[in-house]
Fold these 4 entries.
Entry 1:
Amino acid sequence: MSTDPVQRLKDYKPESEFFVGIDSDGCVFDSMEIKQKECFCPQFINHFGLQRISKYARETWEFVNLYSKTRGANRFTCLERALQMLRERKETQDRGLVIPEYATVMEWIHTETRLANPALEAKFKETGDADLKVVLDWTTDVNNTIAKIVRDVPPFPQVPATLKKIGLKADPFVVSQTPCEALNREWSEHGISHLVKIICGQEMGTKTEHVAFAAKGKYDDDKILIMGDAPSDEIAAKANGVLFYPINPGNEEFSWQRLHDEALDRFFNGTYAGEYEAQIIKEFHSYLPEKAPWEA
């Protein structure tokens, strides 16, 4: 028997006519805010010496990670964007704070194909570079803080009922870049793991690969729907030529209610694709601007 977790997706045989792939953090669970605001951002201010501009550092970090088109992106690419935006802010310059370029870190971000803690640890052991150590300490403390304080975060209120409705006509999967261990723990903790067929985490590939392995070619393209709260979820859907339903950041309850009351029925009766999907995606993009409020 294969020990490759991806093989389970490749071997999966449809049990229903439809497939629905569902992101987890920020989509099913209201966990993005607590993770970014209480875990990532305080450690960002602490490790990068941003105390004198803490107000603007927080505003910038939250824009990059929650309220713009890089929402849900890799933490290290978001770190690069946040630092650069802070360097360019008038408030930073007025307060005489010079933020280092962290050249070796930026080179690592642009050349490493697996941007995660293990790769960063390996690079630091290889080089002993001081800038890499700053980032390694930051990302380690972020993980430790998440482990300490992120708990008892339930799904959005309409999630259980909507998952049950999905399961009546579709095969629901979790499609996420969170580690499988955390996903299984969170979904089990809140009693909803039985409402999906398979929970796919980062060990089973990217979101695009999850959809390709589990669904593409097994269901008609217009009978595959991917759900999520970030552009990466839309990318996974469109890369496979299938449908996308967004959970709008900051308006998640409405998004789930609309899915339950209206959008799912359209998906099942074949009237979701086209103008209706386009309008909903346009609305989604309005929640995630390119430019920050202080740049407008």
Entry 2:
Amino acid sequence: MGFRFRRSTRLGPLRFHFTRAGLSSVSIGGRGATLNLPVARPGAPRTTVGIPGTGLSWSQEHRSERPASPPATAAPVPTEVARGLPNSRRFRPGQLELFKRGCLDLLHHRVFADGSAGRLLWDHHLVSRLLADPSLGARLAGLLACIETPEALEAYLMRARSQDDAKRRADRCLEAVREALRLAAARGWQAGTPSDC
């Protein structure tokens, strides 16, 4: 059996565990329940729960699971634009990207499809013309900037950090289209009417 060096030091609620190589791990908690976070030791964070004085304890490592690939046939978003977006739930990392991409595709097919009023905004650069108007307020300019070009729309939607954020951004894009169509119609520019959206 080889010789082992181990030492620990407590600082407030934290206990630092050292080996010859340096800091090995940090524990939080006390008698009965601790959480051990690895620093230089192998393995994942470990929770230990026990009954003091009995020698009975239970320990579990918290290993992160690799996200399962979603089935190829699963639709990342429903068929309706705003109201059809699904209710909140937590996504695994890869699934959020699929959801954002699905929202973007849905906007392209339902709001910015060829011949639609939304597509005419892009084809005739009407949003850019509206943004060039110095009388446009900052809030309205910020809203319209989200849909100025297909690239702007994609960049805005893909920056979402959660499913709820993606839904808010998709709703904001729809609001921007309606507002752009309203402003274009008020100026006599032919791109359709807000009801076309």
Entry 3:
Amino acid sequence: MAKKTKKIPPMKSQKGIEKTYQKGMAKLGKAMVLAVKKEVLSYLKIHQSTYVIDAVGDDLIKIFNRLNAQFSGLLVSNYAEELASTVVTKTEKANKSKFDRSVQRVTGVDLGSILAAEGLEDFTALSVSRNVQLIKTLPEQYLSQVETIVTNGVSSGLRYSEIEKQIMAKTGSATSKLAGRIKTIARNEIQTINSQINLRRASSLGIKKGIYETSDDERVRPCHAELDGVEYDLAKGAWSKSCGKFIQPGITDINCRCSFSPLIEVA
């Protein structure tokens, strides 16, 4: 009897897990902003009447060295490890639950035991490691940006209030570069991890084809929009003529919200 192909609904990433990741990084971001206020801005305020003519460079170097040591130390490393492990594990478990239920609805087969040992341990460990490093780059980039603002401000003879305004405008608000980077990392990483797990689980079932699906809104890249509904080889990705490359939905491009529906053969 000939087999027919059925489409399994796409396993989209969990917004709740993305929010957990974003809140966790925002907590670290808040600690950094408060440390800068306490260490850097307090120093500048105290010395605002003299730093334009006195040599305060050595003191500022010491302050930033201390802050860099604080936010690259064991405490932050442990926090990054805990946060990364939490969101990766939650993403894997949520994906498995949705994947198993979806396949069972389409095929009538319970995958609980079939995919019990699917070998995701290596992937999970690598994902945690990558995200630990991403989280740890937040203090590095933030403090470097603040140090540049302070150094340029002091060198130019700017008053404390103006330097404070520049720091808070660029790094201390909900719309700052820091907040934007936190949001981008959280969204992109959860989407990427979820999409990579989808590919692994589909492969473990011997599924080779999928249907490309976009989020179907104005934010979809034009060269991704042209792939909507296209059947493609999961191992290669979908070929985009406009982009000139193969695209794995949710993986190839940053902040891609596309997904795929695995095509499974049923009797």
Entry 4:
Amino acid sequence: MTASPQPPRSTTAPAAPARVPLLRLAAVAYGLLAAIALGWNGWAGRPWAYLDASAAAVGIRWGHDLALGLAAASAVIALSQLLTAHTRWGTALAAELARALGPLTLFECGALAALSGFAEEAFFRGALQPRIGWLAASVVFGLAHVAPRRALWLWTAFALAAGGLLGALFAATGNLVAPIAAHTAINAVNLRLLTRDR
């Protein structure tokens, strides 16, 4: 009986372990956040997608609320692109965010935007804002986006302002359609613009 030949030994270094995909982590984190929001409102007997019972009785004006959310998103996206193109700090912030995110596919950008748009709005607007008010919920939203690096602190300020706008949309319409549409569109477009060349 002859010994089977041994496979040649590789002379290259072992591959670095693959990083856990951002989308998988986001699905878990945002799934938990949405579950907390829905569970909290369900336990309290509150309509999860509405500011209050009277807003729930009025219902959703789909065309109006979607259009309002997308118009707000367009304004925020345009402003963020202007700041990125015409200010040093905007350019630096975009580069820092792009490095932190790494490469993302078009599908990943859309999925991350949908997950964050639904879960964050269900929690910060749908569950928190009716309990603590527009201003406090906007501040908590901004604090939830505090980054550990000083280079990203401007992103926290942007999140604080965006939280105020999203809260105003919720207060104006009485439901989560406009804030979810705005949040999802802002994240989808900005994520793609940040990561398309990486």
